[in-house]
């Protein structure tokens, strides 16, 4: 009996490394929730390019979830070679807790290691029945907003920060009034899902809420996917620049010997082919030729940066998102 | 502990072999699979200290989650107490076409994976679903409300009451009932005075099991609940969210409370069963 | 007809009441229990058979099915052995702490699956009790197959024992004691006397254990990491597709689980009939 048990244990322990050895090169990309369709297009394009260049067949696996959740999973042992997140702080966590990424990860790739950017925008129901034009409409008592849980979703944190920045400007820098504004905004949210995609499902499939706030890319994706429902896009007067940082998880890639492939994969996101796919999916990019070609897709919008309004991510984390911070005061303790 | 147990075992001259082997296997397995992980949980929550523990489990949001979970589980159990008793009675006492199928249907909630049950219930009772539309017309919202949570709990725990009451009802001797019937008692009176007291312990046990299962249900509930703090957030989900927020202290503190509750319900159930057995032996 | 015999006065009611109760039971069960199953198939087939086939045969879905089966194939035999050992110990010997042991064996049954996931995370996670040790030896348990097997092992561990203990208690040890007294060895006694007596209950417990192992969601979702085509079991895959703009695909994947559940029910009914006949 004991021998059987130990045999079973040995089998259990040996299954996963064996499975990994069978395949030639395999890298795992841990990404944010709503990037599912995006990487479903990026990955085959990259593997084809890579095969043509090196003759090597690689397989890219995807894991999607709220980006803070993904960071935690990596800290707990999820073997991700690269991360493509929607928030700088979630990669910083990987750096601070056990050195999973390089200290200077933001300088390893161009543009602060963000191949593309986006902004929180609104999606409203057909004909915009509630007349939603800007952030100030979202705190009206008759408007229900849907966005995910800011505690677990980077997407929702940008929404929170954009609303806060808007209110701060309206109130000429009065922090108390800005806090009151986001508190009223959060009070109008009927459902908090853990990731951006669950929030989309709530708004689209279940018909909850008057406005969905999520990245411009997702907003356009939904409108395309559900053309028959006649959703409309509203871009607010001001929004926040949402960077989508990427990094090689050195600790994992080093162990699995996938550093070169992982780096090439992330480099691909900056190439014209990669930027083209990103822009196709309504992400704003940096490549001049691609920008020129997709000019019509991206309306001009005033974007503020976290660094300008909030004094950087470290400060935002400490003041707003840490345990007992402003978010806890306006969100949980209401 | 093993050695001590073994010694006692040897002293009481057993005829059958295998004491050492089965004791060793069982204890090793229970220790590795059940006790070691539980110890990790208790250790983790011990790190927090009693004050911190109390603060974490009595936070506003945690208290609200406990309230939602307990309320929904209570309603789910109340529904199943009635529904389960009805089904047990119908399946034991009457003969009708399709009875076997009806009997087999009772096990669907156990056989169906909870996540599948969750998406199915949500699709069925959503405002645009088959049943949801009807309820909507009556002005009743189910999905994303406590009613929905209770519904999902009721579904996943439905077989408990039926399956505990059924065998007792089957083994019931008809002679007392016949006697009372001959003496002119009404069926309702017979049921209340003669039948129910006998099946009462089983009924209570079934309800306790259903209640315990409802308290811990996760898969079916999260799809239908809507994750709304203070309104439809259940305790298991709060544990999950705390984990996603890196807040291991809060996650383990709340998990300990859930665990203690489950343990208490289980002990109570075992005590009830023992009582029922003693009762049956006497009768 | 085995209607309850009723007093003459209530004769006119004796048929009305059963009919009412049966009707109520049937209607409630159809609406409450059977409809969710119907809705799964209706949604899965809502875009036609071709789409359904494509969804079920999608590589990620097939891999999820494969992974789910692998987990069940490892977990169920282990728990059958454990169930046999525990039942033999509990029903054939008296020792102090027996009641406590029974409670401990049954404990996983009433623990929330999420809590089950959490306790394993606290033990084997990188931040957990054994985390540093595991990392030093490069053993991966969490967010990989071993972790998923372990939590499944935990949540399904009581099923076989729970079926065997009551049966073996009722059967008593007389036959086995006779065999041993007549000179049979322990294993001979087990194979020739005990096993034939309990084989249907053992199988029954295994069927229940399999159903739960295949359907486990909460505990596995805590320790899986949701890697498409790698650590996604079928129930997790249902959730993933559900959030993928692909409700139809989710329901298609759900039908495979539902079919397994229905097969389980048939097996269970057959085994029950066998058990009853004994």
TrEMBL record, chain A:
Give the subcellular location: Periplasm
Signal sequence coordinates:
1-20
Q: Which of UniProt's keywords are assigned here?
A: Periplasm, Signal, Sulfate transport, Transport
* UniProt cross-references to CDD domains, sorted A to Z: PBP2_CysP
Q: Does the keyword Signal apply?
A: yes
**Pfam families named among the record's database cross-references:** SBP_bac_11
Q: Mostly located where?
A: periplasm
InterPro entries named in the record? Sulphate/thiosulphate-bd_CS, Sulphate/thiosulphate_BS, Thiosulph/SO4-bd
PANTHER family per the record? SULFATE-BINDING PROTEIN (PTHR30368), THIOSULFATE-BINDING PROTEIN (PTHR30368:SF1)
Which protein family is named in the record? Answer: Belongs to the prokaryotic sulfate-binding protein family.
Q: What is this protein called?
A: Thiosulfate ABC transporter substrate-binding protein CysP
Record organism: Chelatococcus albus
The organism that produces this protein has a lineage beginning with:
Bacteria, Pseudomonadati, Pseudomonadota, Alphaproteobacteria, Hyphomicrobiales
Automatic annotation (TrEMBL), chain B:
Q: Which residues form a coiled coil?
A: none
Outline the extent of the ABC transmembrane type-1 domain.
Answer: 66-269
Kindly give the InterPro entries that the UniProt entry links to this protein: CysT_permease, MetI-like, MetI-like_sf, Sulph_transpt2
Pfam families in the record, alphabetically?
Answer: BPD_transp_1 (PF00528)
Report how it sits in the membrane.
Multi-pass membrane protein
SUPFAM superfamilies according to UniProt: MetI-like (SSF161098)
Q: Where in the cell is it found?
A: Cell membrane
Record key words, sorted: Membrane, Sulfate transport, Transmembrane, Transmembrane helix, Transport
CDD domains (alphabetical): TM_PBP2
Transmembrane region(s): 21-43, 63-92, 104-127, 142-162, 194-212, 218-241, 248-268
Q: Source organism's superkingdom?
A: Bacteria
Keyword Amino-acid biosynthesis in annotation: no
The entry assigns this protein to a family as follows:
Belongs to the binding-protein-dependent transport system permease family. CysTW subfamily.
How is the quaternary structure described? The complex is composed of two ATP-binding proteins (CysA), two transmembrane proteins (CysT and CysW) and a solute-binding protein (CysP).
Q: Summarize the protein's role.
A: Part of the ABC transporter complex CysAWTP (TC 3.A.1.6.1) involved in sulfate/thiosulfate import. Probably responsible for the translocation of the substrate across the membrane. Part of the ABC transporter complex (TC 3.A.1.6.1) involved in sulfate/thiosulfate import.
Designated name of the protein? Sulfate transport system permease protein CysT
From TrEMBL, chain C:
Sorted keywords for this record are: Membrane, Sulfate transport, Transmembrane, Transmembrane helix, Transport
What is this entry's stated membrane topology?
Answer: Multi-pass membrane protein
Pfam families listed in its UniProt record:
BPD_transp_1
The question of whether Transmembrane is a record keyword is answered with yes
ABC transmembrane type-1 domain sequence ranges = 65-272
Gene3D superfamilies annotated for this entry?
A: MetI-like
Q: Which CDD domains match?
A: TM_PBP2 (cd06261)
Specify where it is mainly localized. Answer: membrane
* SUPFAM superfamilies (UniProt xref): MetI-like
Q: Which PROSITE patterns match?
A: ABC_TM1
Record localization: Cell membrane
Enumerate the InterPro entries for this protein. Answer: CysW_permease (IPR011866), MetI-like (IPR000515), MetI-like_sf (IPR035906), Sulph_transpt2 (IPR005667)
| Membrane-traversing stretches | 20-45, 65-89, 101-123, 143-161, 201-227, 247-271
**Functional summary from the UniProt entry:** Part of the ABC transporter complex CysAWTP (TC 3.A.1.6.1) involved in sulfate/thiosulfate import. Probably responsible for the translocation of the substrate across the membrane.
Task: Quote the NCBIfam families the UniProt record gives.
Answer: 3a0106s02, permease_CysW
Quaternary assembly = The complex is composed of two ATP-binding proteins (CysA), two transmembrane proteins (CysT and CysW) and a solute-binding protein (CysP).
Q: What is this protein called?
A: Sulfate ABC transporter permease subunit CysW
Q: Which organism is it from?
A: Chelatococcus albus
